[in-house]
Amino acid sequence: MDRAALAAFLRVRREALQPADVGLPAGGARRRAPGLRREEVAALAAMSTDYYTRLEQQRGPQPSEQMLASLARALRLTSGERDYLFRVAGRNAPSFVSATRHVAPALLRVLDRLDDTPALILSNLGETLVQNRMAEALFGDRSRYTGLARSEIYRWFTDPSERLRYPESDRDRQSRAQVANLRAAYGSMGPRSRAGELVRALQKASAEFAELWERHEVAKRFSDHKTLIHPELGAIELDCQVLFTEDQSQALLVLTAPPGTESYDKLRLLGVPGHARFPADAQPR
């Protein structure tokens, strides 16, 4: 572990960011130093200010891979910068599996500016990498899952509660779309990839999936109009727009409703601080 290089790199990257770059308000008080404050980086990385401060002062313990991944996301590092961070901290650069969970900085910059409508970033396997507060109010905390269940595709075919947010009349269409999206990921990643692992698990777990997989439908949705069922607010009609990274390994989903509609008013209710979240096992009214 190169403590001096790690400390210098963290400081330089922190000072290169402004609050607006990470979705934070600038605040009224004048900043004494350029860039983000240490406590702001610590909050973004979900660690204590003292822990982060010790890293910049060359006093901290060797960060875990999880801590380094959180710092890379907080500091909006590119994949090359992320790998450098890992190496100076005495860790191996992330494997392909771990690297795919590193959120593309370009998508994060867009997400940071979306605070009045649900938005989330997904991997090409349907794993929620990050979501804003509006998306959490609409869907619940989708980052809490582990293992294969991190994929919404896997949950769709193995967890009946996952389908409660869609009207029954739309569930067949959603099933086909989930499989078609996975087929696209499988084609680009190969049978020995995590996509292949997901396919094999679902073929054993779900007869519906196995039947749809044999249709060989391939698609990536760039836009969609859907109705979601919230347990308290009922049906919400939304337009879904998708922005992909260049390699199409990640996508930013933005959900909106036309102003003046009932669904628009329901989204505004979701934005009220403290509004009830969507529990995983909630039954819609």
Automatic annotation (TrEMBL):
Domain of life where this protein originates: Bacteria
A Pfam family reported for this protein in Swiss-Prot or TrEMBL: MLTR_LBD
HTH cro/C1-type domain sequence ranges: 29-82
InterPro entries for the chain: Cro/C1-type_HTH, Lambda_DNA-bd_dom_sf, MLTR_LBD
SUPFAM superfamilies hit by this protein: lambda repressor-like DNA-binding domains
Annotated PROSITE patterns: HTH_CROC1 (PS50943)
Coiled-coil features, chain-numbered ranges: none
PANTHER family recorded: BLL4672 PROTEIN, BLL4672 PROTEIN-RELATED
Entry protein name: Helix-turn-helix domain-containing protein
Species this chain originates from: Planosporangium thailandense
